[in-house]
Specification:
The complex is a heterodimer of chains A (about 325) and B (about 250). Chain A is an all-alpha fold and about 325 residues long. Chain A is about 75% helix and about 0% strand. The longest helix of chain A has about 35 residues, at about 35-65. Chain B contains ten helices and twelve strands. Classes of the chains: A mainly alpha (about 325), B alpha/beta (about 250).
Amino acid sequence: MTRWIWGGAALIALVAISLSIGAASLWTSDLGSGWLIAVSRFPRTAAAILAGGGLALAGVVVQQAVQNRFVEPGLSGTPEAAMLGLLVITLWAPGAALWIKMAVAALAAMAGTALFLKLAAHVPRSDPMLLPLVGLIYAGILGAVVVWIAWSVDLMQYLGVWQMGEFSGVVQGRYELLWGIAVLAALLYTLADRITILGLGADAARSLGLDYGQTVALGLAVVAAITALVVVTVGALPFVGLVVPNIISRLCGDNLRRNLPVVAVCGGGAVLAADIVGRLVRFPYEVPAATIFAIAGAAVFLWLLHAAPKAGNG
Amino acid sequence: MIEIDDVSLRVRDTGILHGIAAQVPRDGITALIGPNGAGKSSLLHLCAGLTTPSAGRIVLDGEDVHRMAHRDRARRIAVLTQAQALTSRLTVKDLVSFGRWPHHQGRPRDEDRQIVEEALRLFDLLGLAPRQVETLSGGQKARAFTAMAWAQSTPWLFLDEPLAALDPRFARDLMAQLHVMSRPGPEARGVLIVVHDLNAAALWADHVLALKDGGVFAAGPAAEVMTPPRLSTLFDTGFGVVETKRGRLVYPE
């Protein structure tokens, strides 16, 4: 219980900080503080929490589906596949509505992740580090295809926005799609037991009466939709889905009925913290949240590897 | 009763099982024995509906196993597979509780909680209940997974080498427990078990289904199948026999 109180207090503090800092001062600006909060600060804060929470949840689902803790959407080609879908729809129908682009990105992300799962089935499980490496290479290949297409049709600028997750461009009217993540998170919570059971392995899941293929497909659809939403609105944020679920798993285990809310809140808090740090280190200039998170996340990941050499399969 | 009706299994280009026809009675323990690679685990997986046969069908209590609804099947058959690698961090109690999932699908009732407690008690896991499964020894882990299958309270229980990691005391306790629950009667549960310990089979099994090279080598009451000449042919090595007060023991010569 005390853990909840501390966690809640930390999140409230982060929100308060995020709402109060920025290039324009909340108190001396002639823009009006209410207007500033409504149009810029609140959307930015909400976007960071939604994106972070969603990606952390997506990480849990991928990890349970492939039974490997060292995998996350960024290591399964999901964002790259979403970008590929975005490129294709941007070329084919440049004027398409945002929700159509979003849907195409989500479908492409789903196909890309499904292909990764097919690959994963052939990767030996003896060494848990093998699968993330395969995922890294797979994501690299997809990413290279994306860059090649973007380069040859002169869309590299778009690509830069999608690849580097940051929140400086988030204002009212340009991030609301992210609230879809809240809906997906609620859906995921109704599947919590099923996803925990996925983590027991295909045979155990089937013998407990789960339609294994259907459950994996459903989880995958949620992961793809969350990733596509994040890529389209704020850009890719690697490591979130890796670091946050691993820390929560160490602290409170993997029973997702109990843990999913914790994972979501911590993911949101972590990305918000990264965004705040990014806004402060070179004030009034900004460092993208993805960069900050990648630095911190890489350090935490190395620590996880060091602290738990066998945790991936043990 | 399980009727295995001319079942074959091919994995890619390799034939694993060819034209298996056999019956597994509902009461009593049926032991699946045979040399390594004979197809015992494959047959057990097929009977549990975890894999689909290339040809033939498996009828359990009058219904095709591969046509049952997933949840329906999970309320009739509980399986303990050999691979018990758990990547998730779950407590023993959480793991065993998932055995009740086919019955409550996320909304456990008092009855479900009682059965979980009973399973923990029966497999001597009460003291280990709050521990993470990954911190257990191999034998403790095996008991936790067996307790989960037991908690599923299904008319059929399939166990793939459940004795492999157990010490003699727990191995005996498990077999005695299976023996009790499979006695004829309205509550009888069918037990199909893959064993390599021939003496466990000789002491506890009521029926034996012996597989060799993907086919049925012999099937029938344990005393008829487990004779030295038959075992010698089955395993391609000589077998001796000792008659004891408890029953017949066999050993490779």
